[in-house]
Specification:
This protein has 265 residues and is an alpha+beta fold. Helices cover 36% and strands 23% of the residues. The protein has 3 domains: 82 residues, Orthogonal Bundle (Arc Repressor Mutant, subunit A), CATH 1.10.10; 89 residues, no CATH class; 59 residues, no CATH class. It is built from 12 helices and 13 strands. A hairpin with a 2-residue loop joins β5 and β6.
């Protein structure tokens, strides 16, 4: 069941509820009908409307503990399956997992990690909810580009790819001197860059010198669902304005993986 079902069935324990205040999706459901037919819930007229009340508290309590066990804590997919019979019923907090690659040493949760050695042996270093101290960092949006970042950037950078979208909580755990953001050249990528820049004013967006040529040759139609956020619409930073206007006027965007192709002059 969904989170909204959880809310209303528990609210009903407090007393009578107006039938009209309960979502139609609940009152027309098989579960609600079965509770009514079994005499567990009663529906009575009240003025011009109707009210719903519990007729059999013991049976209703059994129903609640079966479908909505109160002792299930947290908001993981597993908890949602047990609590709501639906792993996606309630929005979950994002997972702060990130991947790192590089040729230098960084500090992760107050421990020194030799990324050169780890990258050589395993290809990347993965960490959950980390505190990071890094001199030069390049945040890369897409996994394929992250795994081949040395083909584009010099190895003075530590490369980071975040699993899922980057939030303020994750950014607050990063300490960095120099920060480069490498994203797709679309409205989402620009929005991510500007979000990062709010936490790190020194951040800059990586744009290849031959961007216009690459855009003309390799750009693809912009997905209909992409819209410019307030950050992107109101931004006056030259590089953002240029890319934003190019994307909106052409209704096309450039994927960052294009830069894995040997740059054309």
């Amino acid at each position: 069941m969904k989170e909204v079902d959880f809310k209303y069935y528990y609210e009903l324990k407090k007393g009578e509820m107006s039938f009209s205040n309960i979502p139609i999706g609940i009152t027309r459901s098989n579960t609600f009908k079965q509770l009514s037919d079994a005499g567990i819930l009663g529906i009575t007229k009240a003025g011009r409307g109707k009210t719903v009340r519990i007729l059999n508290p013991l049976a209703y309590e059994t129903f609640l503990t079966t479908y909505f066990p109160e002792n299930i804590a947290g908001n993981t997919r597993a908890a949602n399956i047990i609590k709501l019979r639906n792993s996606k019923a309630k929005k979950r907090q994002g997972s702060n997992i990130c991947f790192l690659r590089g040729a230098g040493k960084i500090t992760v949760n107050n421990h020194t990690v030799d990324l050169r050695e780890v990258t050589k042996l395993y290809g990347l270093f993965a960490v959950y909810d980390p505190n990071l101290f890094i001199g030069k960092l390049c945040i890369i949006e897409n996994l394929e580009t992250f795994l081949n970042a040395e083909k584009i950037f010099d190895l003075s950078y530590t490369f980071l790819h975040k699993y899922g979208r980057i939030g303020e909580g994750f950014l607050n755990r990063i300490n960095v001197n120099e920060l480069l953001v490498f994203s797709d050249y679309d409205l989402i990528g620009l929005g991510e860059y500007l979000k990062i820049k709010e936490s790190f004013p020194q951040a800059s967006l990586y744009v290849p010198k031959n961007f216009n040529l690459l855009f003309e040759k390799y750009s693809t139609p912009l997905p209909e669902k992409q819209v410019a956020t307030g950050r992107v619409k109101n931004c006056t930073e030259g590089v953002v304005v240029e890319i934003r206007d190019t994307v909106l006027k052409s209704n096309r965007f450039l994927e960052q993986e294009v830069l894995l192709i040997k740059n054309e002059s």
